[in-house]
Amino acid sequence: QANPPVTEVKWLFQGRLLLHDSLKGVNIRNLSLLHLNVSRRHRGTYQCQAINAQGRGRSEEVMLRIQYAPACSARHRRNYGVAKNEQINVTCSVESDPQDVMFWWIFNNTFSETKEIRSFQRSASELKSVVKFVPKSILDYGALYCYAKNTVGNMREPCVFNIVPTGPPESLQNCTITNQSFNSLSLSCEVGDDGGMKQTFHLEIYSMKREQLLANVTSNDYPSFIVRGLPP
């Protein structure tokens, strides 16, 4: 109700203005908001805002709840480097509504052998499941698949965790010095196997005559270095 009459009605989603977009299934007609092809991205709070010559007013917020089958959380670690007989905790986190979720795990090794993991922990309040995994042979490296379901249905795609062996990295190869001057140089090398883990690269330059460390440079991405300010 308004006096003078309402001249314009707007809709807000999560406090932000919602615009008519038929391509995205958002249809605003007169005083009505119609969502087509509803998905979980539409869940949240909605308000309508009425405007007349005297000002504007908002309705109370209405929470739209969208129920959906579990889906992998966007923030989860996908790759685990682990040595033989080393224990790791692999955590599978999902988003779900309703939150009453059942988990199960499958392991598939690099030789295409599959087995069910029967021992795991589950935290219903945090929507996550944890497997304690210990590779004891080469057959224990591969992929862990985490599945979940609720009353809406099964998740479309499992959460996948790659279990890879780790070890010391291989030595760098074919190191070449270029652009050498009286007080600077550039050096680049070819990368060897990383041993299943992220590498960092270090360059140290010593003076044999002075028995002194002249430079200590670190690269986090690639074994390519530029060193300046060397003594003549």
What secondary-structure arrangement, pairings included, does this model have?
Layout: E1 8-13, E2 16-18, E3 26-29, E4 32-35, E5 44-52, E6 55-58, E7 62-64, E8 68-72, E9 79-82, E10 88-97, E11 102-109, E12 114-117, E13 121-123, E14 128-133, E15 142-149, E16 159-165, E17 173-178, E18 184-190, E19 201-207, E20 212-219, E21 224-228
Parallel strand pairs: 9-16
Antiparallel strand pairs: 1-2, 1-5, 3-4, 5-6, 5-7, 8-10, 10-14, 11-12, 11-15, 13-14, 15-16, 17-18, 18-21, 19-20
- Gap between N and C termini: 86 Å
- The strand count comes to 21
Beta-strand residue fraction: over 45%
SSE run = EEEEEEEEEEEEEEEEEEEEE
Strand count, sense and barrel status of the largest sheet are: 5 strands, antiparallel
CATH architecture descriptor name of the largest domain: Sandwich
